[in-house]
Write a sequence for this structure.
């Protein structure tokens, strides 16, 4: 086949409830073990980024998200201490704040009202800021 | 290190001139050898997607693009016959229609007025449609 070696592809998902809280997980593994993070993970070969995003949310939080809006692509070579990963970040909204059930790489999963008061893994604080800007623009329409 | 194997990451760039023409290359190599395509290619480990996009445009057309706007992430597993590639597509605009100079993987590079009349490689017709929608939304602001 011989596709060139490129950065590893990941997805992250920002999920708001109607009160503006965000769904975060506590990371079970290094890097950033124990820190809050967005649900997400590596994209499998053969799945779209949207399918990978829904799968990771399901595996880590037990919740199903449907419509996804692209927030951005995050590709700083230093964003992940394991090596160069590039994340496609999506925004989803749930009609109600359903209780999550932590699974897979998530030690815990919970609705967080003030993420700015928490230490977040990777560049997830930046993704959350960008997602909030996008959500407020959409609300103006 | 052990990052999981994921789809290969590429970039593509839609470049409009002030008359609405788009900069396309003729592919020198398979797949889609001889077909028109957007300038683009594989992202190197250690570079951001934006840097990879500017580098590919420079290598294939000799032109320099500055500001980039994300159009979307294209990840259908069947979009590339070589294997699963995922492309971050960007929109750029040049202040004037400078003459391109084909290089690298490009057999030719030219400004095309009506891309809908051409057979395009990969899912580049879809990317061009999405980019035109984005550009017209931006023009309304």
């Amino acid at each position: 086949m011989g596709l060139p070696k490129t950065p590893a592809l990941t997805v992250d998902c920002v999920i708001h409830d109607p009160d503006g809280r965000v769904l975060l997980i506590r990371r079970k593994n290094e890097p950033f073990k124990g820190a809050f993070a967005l649900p997400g993970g590596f994209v499998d070969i053969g799945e779209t980024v949207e399918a990978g995003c829904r799968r990771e949310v399901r595996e880590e939080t037990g919740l199903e998200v449907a419509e996804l809006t692209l927030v951005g692509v995050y590709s700083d070579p230093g964003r992940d201490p394991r090596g160069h990963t590039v994340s496609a970040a999506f925004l989803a909204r749930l009609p109600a704040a359903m209780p999550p059930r932590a699974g897979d790489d998530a030690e815990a999963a919970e609705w967080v009202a003030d993420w700015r008061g928490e230490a977040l893994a990777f560049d997830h604080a930046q993704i959350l800021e960008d997602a909030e800007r996008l959500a407020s623009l959409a609300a103006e329409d």
